[in-house]
Design a protein that fits this description.
elongated; 8 strands; eight-stranded antiparallel beta barrel; 12% helix
Length: 189
C-alpha cells in the first residue's frame, strides 16, 4: 500500500515538472507552431516575347513560426497567350505553395515563394495537354493592417512535359509580375 502511494506521488511530481517545461519541437515550441492563416487573391501578368497575358488566381494556407507559409495555390489565364512562332493557348494550373517571409513583423519585408504542381494547356484547335509547373518568385510584402497585406513579386514560370504540337515547354514558360492581396491573421509568439 505504501509503495503504491509512493509511486502515485512520484508520478504526480513527474507530470507536474514535465508540464512546467516547454518542449521544443521541429516546428516551434507548441505542437506544429501554427501562427496564422492567410488567403490571397493574385493578379499576374505573364510576358511572352512582346505580348503579355493577364492571369487571376489565389491561394490559401497556414503560417508557421510567423514567417513560413504552406498552402495551396491556383491560377488561370484570362486570355490567350500568343508566343512568337508558336500556337496560341490558354493555361490553368495549381499546386502546393511554399513561402518564407523573413521579418514578417516589419511593415515592409521580403517574401520568397514557389508554387509546384500540375496544370493544363488549352491550345487553339487542339486537345488539351497536361503539364508540370514550377513557379518560383521573390518580392516584397507590405503589412497594411494586421489582417491585410499587399505583395509585389516577380519570377519565372517553368513549364515542362508539354505534348502539344507547335507548342514546346519553352514557348509556355515565361517571366511574370504579380500582385497579391492577402487577408488573414497572425498570432504573435
Amino acid at each position: 500500500m505504501r509503495i503504491g502511494m509512493l509511486l502515485s506521488l512520484l508520478a504526480m511530481l513527474a507530470s507536474t515538472s514535465l508540464q512546467a517545461q516547454r518542449q521544443e519541437t521541429l516546428f516551434g515550441h507548441n505542437g506544429l507552431g501554427i501562427t496564422g492563416m492567410w488567403g490571397s487573391a493574385t493578379y499576374n501578368y505573364s510576358f511572352f516575347d512582346e505580348d503579355y497575358v493577364y492571369n487571376r488566381g489565389g491561394n490559401i494556407g497556414l503560417e508557421f513560426g510567423n514567417n513560413f507559409f504552406v498552402g495551396y495555390g491556383w491560377s488561370r489565364f484570362r486570355e490567350n497567350a500568343n508566343p512568337e512562332g508558336a500556337r496560341s493557348f490558354r493555361m490553368r494550373y495549381n499546386g502546393v505553395l511554399l513561402a518564407v517571409a523573413p521579418g514578417a513583423y516589419k511593415a515592409v519585408h521580403p517574401r520568397i515563394s514557389a508554387l509546384i504542381g500540375g496544370g493544363r494547356v488549352f491550345p487553339d484547335n487542339l486537345p488539351r495537354s497536361q503539364v508540370f509547373v514550377f513557379q518560383p518568385s521573390a518580392g516584397i510584402e507590405v503589412n497594411v493592417f494586421q489582417w491585410f497585406r499587399v505583395g509585389l513579386e516577380g519570377g519565372y514560370r517553368i513549364v515542362t512535359n508539354s505534348s502539344t504540337p507547335d507548342l514546346s515547354s519553352t514557348d509556355i514558360s515565361s517571366p511574370f509580375a504579380q500582385i497579391d492581396l492577402r487577408f488573414g491573421f497572425t498570432r504573435r509568439r
